[in-house]
Give the backbone structure.
Amino acid sequence: MYEERKIWLGGKILPVTEATINVLSPTSQFGANVFEGIRCYWNEERQKLYAFRLQDHYRRLHQSVRLLRINSPYSTDDLERALVDVVRANNYREDIAIRQTIFVDGLGGTWSSREPVNMFVAPIPRPRKPISEKRGLRCMVASWQRISDNNLSPRAKVGANYINSRNAQLDALQNGYDSAIFLNNNGKVAEGPGSCIFIIRDGQLITPPCTASVLESITRDTIIRIAREEMGITTVERDIDRTELYICDEAFLCGSAMEVMPITDVDGFTIGNAAWGETTAALANHYLQAVTGQSTRHPEWLTEI
């Protein structure tokens, strides 16, 4: 039940209905917050819950704090302790997603306020679907340009940045698509709304570089490492032209929330056989084995909760 969820806020674990902030706080008025979306996966065989690449999420969260110039008092140990405490308080024994947000709090602050700073940690059940139940995404190239390092850098996970993704996603839905694909200010493929993109051409796995107006995605890095180290797939980070989306053999979006999701159509051009491609499906399976602890190749990626 939603009302029974517990949230960590300001050092206390509270019922979700009591976890409130002031409507005039800078986070509420101006989106002055940074966050991480963290997945935890339940391993039924071991009866254990694992957070995936938790320390990497926290390194990126500290980076976002620095870029937004928030005077955060939270150390990495503070972040992990808060997450573990609230997950255990909810007694989750299932797959969950966690939003961990550091924000500028207080009454009467402005868009330039750097403190006072607060944090919430909000876990919620997030069951994963088997690959066989995930249909692909029909995407359109967004009319909205992806934010860039010279205006609102996508390198930082700032709440206000996601208005850019909101605009593209709502446009896609309005036009009968499932999602969107951004181009950057150089007219090259960037990423999706809250997800990174890969294409497969002639046996190569290709993704835009981190300098192409994309988030330094942990899932993106995981996919690249799985492809290179475990599957022996030639993986290239380079600019991707819009028309390459129309003629590629396979394409998929990925992210902590989305995991791996195939793209079946871009702007009316069918991708592959309009279903799961062989390479995409194999990468998705390897990814799920890694996040759930079924693979033992990267034990450092898992934090036992």
In short: The longest helix spans residues 54-68. The chain is about 25% helix and 30% strand. The chain has a mean pLDDT of 95.
